Amino acid sequence: MDQYLSLLTAEKVKDCYSGLHYLSEKDTFRNRIIVVRANLAEQIRARYNVTKRAFYGANRDIEFTSQTTLPVDGPKE
User: Fold this and answer.
1) Is the pTM above the cut of 0.70?
2) What is the phi/psi pair of residue 35, to 5°?
3) What is the pLDDT of residues 14-53, one digit of tens each?
4) Where are the alpha helices (H) located in the chain, listed in sequence order?
5) How many other CB atoms are there within 10 angstroms of residue 9's CB atom?
6) Distances in whole angstroms, Cα of residue 64 to Cα of each of 12, 41, 76
């Protein structure tokens, strides 16, 4: 959650429940898929006390996953 909030600050995005959507529109993330773990998404949603419909509707272009994804080569050490 701290990384998400610091990313909002670094990219000068308004701290709101649709912050993920605003991040996806920034030049830094344009043409890239933003993947967010479902448990973090629920923490963000709870932070702003919005319904699931409002949160996921506002961030519909974000991909939510229930698992951590690893690179095809495996973890780099």
Assistant:
1) yes
2) -115, 130
3) 888 888 888 888 888 888 888 888 888 999 999 999 999 9
4) 2-10, 19-25, 38-48, 52-58
5) 10
6) 23, 8, 24
